[in-house]
Amino acid sequence: xxxxxxxxxxxxxxxxxxxGRYVARRLLGDGVRVRTLTRNPDREDPFAGRVKAYPxxxxxxxxxxxxxxxAGVLYNTYWIRYARGGITFHQAVRNTGTLFQxxxxxxxxRIVHFSVAxxxxxxxxxxxxxxxxxxxxxxxVGISYATIRPTLVFGKGDLLLNNMAWALRRFPVFPVFxxxxxxxxPIYAGDLAALAVESGSRADSFVANAGGPDTFTFEELLRxxxxxxxxxxxxxxxxPFLGFALTKLVGLLLRDVGLTRDxxxxxxxxxxxxxxxxxxxxxxxxxxxxxxxxxxxxYVSESRRNLPS
Length: 309
Description:
By secondary structure, the chain is an alpha/beta fold. The protein is built from 11 helices and 13 strands. Helix 4 links the parallel strand 5 and strand 6. Helix 2 crosses helix 3, helix 3 packs parallel to helix 4 and helix 5 crosses helix 7. The longest helix is centred in the first third of the chain and has 17 residues. It is globular and about 55 Å long. It starts with 8 loop residues before the first strand and ends with a helix. The relative contact order is 0.15.
């Protein structure tokens, strides 16, 4: 491992959002000056002006380049959960390539990229396939890089666990797709950020799996979550198509998108387990003991929170 001093300036995509916020907070705590590229300039600034925001406009590569000049590291969390607003996964791959090339043109010396556990071109899952394509693109960029492959990320600001907890609190039954015995290895967002920032201080190029210290079956995860929020709910095993249909119906009623088909298929295929030793130390059960009372108290809409104004 070739560990260096972290550059004094960094760019984080989505620093006002979820994973990027944890990375920016960690960098600021280490005395690094942080800029962010954002698709939603009207989003509330959690850093009280300490992070300067620039537009993440992929139609303006020169603007992206100027926004990154002087930074030593780019932390990239940009991606989409599903095709929306005319942006497909193919376009998201192209957008990421534009971002990488702009970083190189700006003189950025290193890219730390957030991928996903178990990406592959062999899956018929556009989310995971697109992530694999971006990883291959990053290898050819020509500067040093670290690719971080997280599993299910939990922490304050998370949408998935929060909205699952919301549903567990409010409905008498909750669908479990199929047998519910497929594995999940959740990692705390703070541990993920620590790994990313450490990776930004290295000079070698590498890929790192990022999973937490505990592995659960999906059913065990739901029971742990229900217990933490005090939900008295019946877990009902359903055929995957029926469970997905019910999830989609709730999403339509809330004018949002719940779990996508890619996410359900990837979950059931065990793709949210890293297959490597734990890189995180925070146990989900401990975190839920501290946060379960507020988790899921209200539904958080991704459509309203993450889509540009």
